[in-house]
Amino acid sequence: MNKHICSRWAFDLSTWTPTLPQLTHAVAAIQPEERKRLMKFHFIDDFLSSLIGRLLMRKFVSTCSNVPYHQVQFARDVRGKPYWVQDQQSESTPPLSFNVSHQGKLVLLAGVKGDSKDDAEFGIGTDVMKIEYNGGKPLSEFFRLMQSKFSPQEWSYIGRPQHNERAQLKALMRHWCLKEAYVKELGVGITVDLQKISFDMDTTHPLEEASSPLCGSTLCCNGTPMTQWHFEEHLLTPKYCAAIAFRNCLPLEHAKFEFLPFEELIEQSPKADQPDVVAYCQKALLKPHKRHE
Ligand code: COA
Ligand code: MG
């Protein structure tokens, strides 16, 4: 299996309170249809998570392809998965695969770059989850509702006798991230029977920030080992776990997610102060905040 250069970038929204000029700069960089979509969010938190995801994608494609930041074009497939609209004329642009995930205060991008046009049969998916449950009902009730999403083998790992409630929740979230990362590479949403996707966890080390990433978890679909797939599991903070699914590719090296400051997401973009974008951002900044975590 070919080894590829891999980017793992994270953004922590709790470190950023956008000013109007910063937000204007960011919003000016994204496509009009995405601006329209973002404005539909009720909370500013969701607006910003999704916006940062768009900036991460733009930075990734622009950095890997040398296409100027503002010229990168994205579209979404029928299931909503974003992809890069590559210039067919250009022979030199490499095949890329990337995926974004956001939850709570974190936004992640995982991306891989192929060597040549002949090396395009690979892909990547990622998912991040906050390890918490505050659904109101007892945790046992939540687990009962989740029953159909996990295989018997996965439940036996999640419910290990040495797992207290917190460890069970963490184990469940780890599985969830792995499944979502897999499903997101495929781009098929929740049409897959999740119980038939069964992960066998890497148990060499507990998943901690220091031990991240763990790379030994494996997947069986309908009992068949999925040998073309490779997984990384990360703990980014004590409360956030994430997974990356690699199809037909392996990262050149296993590494942690790198936290980027806002300025690095936008530095290649020309500053902007178009009145319509400023007015749009003023409106966005009036959106309510979620209760802080
Ligand atoms: N496939 C892959 N990526 C997609 C996608 C698709 N069909 N549609 C959107 N995305 C990308 C986008 O960049 C999106 O960001 P945006 O909403 O700002 O545009 C990002 O992935 C969203 O990912 P994430 O933050 O992880 O969202 P999610 O986990 O809520 O949803 C879905 C992921 C939409 C792709 C899909 O898998 C889904 O509907 N999941 C439902 C949850 C579920 O039942 N999971 C079971 C796992 S055990
Ligand atoms: Mg998700």
Write the layout of secondary structure elements.
Layout: E1 3-12, H1 20-29, H2 32-39, H3 44-65, E2 74-76, E3 82-84, E4 96-103, E5 106-113, E6 123-130, H4 139-146, H5 152-158, H6 165-186, E7 197-200, E8 218-221, E9 224-225, E10 229-237, E11 240-247, E12 250-251, E13 258-259, H7 262-266, H8 275-284
Parallel strand pairs: 1-12, 1-13
Antiparallel strand pairs: 1-5, 2-3, 4-5, 6-11, 7-8, 8-9, 10-11
Helix pairs in contact: 1-8, 5-6
The structure holds coenzyme A and magnesium ion.
Domain 4'-phosphopantetheinyl transferase N-terminal: 15-112
InterPro entries: 4-PPantetheinyl_Trfase_dom (IPR008278), 4-PPantetheinyl_Trfase_dom_sf (IPR037143), AASDHPPT_N (IPR055066), P-Pant_transferase_sf (IPR050559)
Family: Belongs to the P-Pant transferase superfamily. AcpS family.
Commentary on this structure:
With 293 residues, this protein is an alpha+beta fold. It has a domain at 1-122 and 248-293: 4'-phosphopantetheinyl transferase domain (Ribosomal Protein L22, Chain A), CATH 3.90.470.20. 31% of the residues lie in helices and 24% in strands. The strands form four sheets. Strands 1, 4, 5, 12 and 13 form a five-stranded mixed β-sheet that branches. A three-stranded antiparallel β-sheet has the order 6-11-10, with helices on one face. A three-stranded antiparallel β-sheet has the order 7-8-9, with helices on one face. α1 packs across α8 (275-284) and α5 packs antiparallel against α6 (165-186). The radius of gyration is 20 Å and the shape is globular. The chain binds coenzyme A (COA) and magnesium ion. Coenzyme A binds next to α3, β4 and α6.
